[in-house]
Amino acid sequence: MSTQKTSWPEVVGWPASAAVTQINSDRPDVAIEVIPAGANVAPGYNASRVRVYFDAGNATGPVLYTPYVG
């Protein structure tokens, strides 16, 4: 059973840049995509990807949803 972290609920509300730094620290093996909330993205699961959705209308760009591997 894998012990690698697969979700980051603690970064919800953080600035997107700080969330990316934390996720990269925990899982340097995944690609991190930073995406404005509401943007269209290709569907599908990817075990090597984490998507970070942020509020582009807010100056601090806080993370809106729990980022997870997929």
UniProtKB/TrEMBL annotation:
<protein>
    <recommendedName>
        <fullName>Subtilisin inhibitor 1</fullName>
    </recommendedName>
</protein>
<dbReference type="GO" id="GO:0004867">
    <property type="term" value="F:serine-type endopeptidase inhibitor activity"/>
</dbReference>
<dbReference type="InterPro" id="IPR036354">
    <property type="entry name" value="Prot_inh_pot1_sf"/>
</dbReference>
<keyword id="KW-0646">Protease inhibitor</keyword>
<comment type="similarity">
    <text>Belongs to the protease inhibitor I13 (potato type I serine protease inhibitor) family.</text>
</comment>
<dbReference type="GO" id="GO:0009611">
    <property type="term" value="P:response to wounding"/>
</dbReference>
<keyword id="KW-0722">Serine protease inhibitor</keyword>
<dbReference type="Pfam" id="PF00280">
    <property type="entry name" value="potato_inhibit"/>
</dbReference>
<dbReference type="InterPro" id="IPR000864">
    <property type="entry name" value="Prot_inh_pot1"/>
</dbReference>
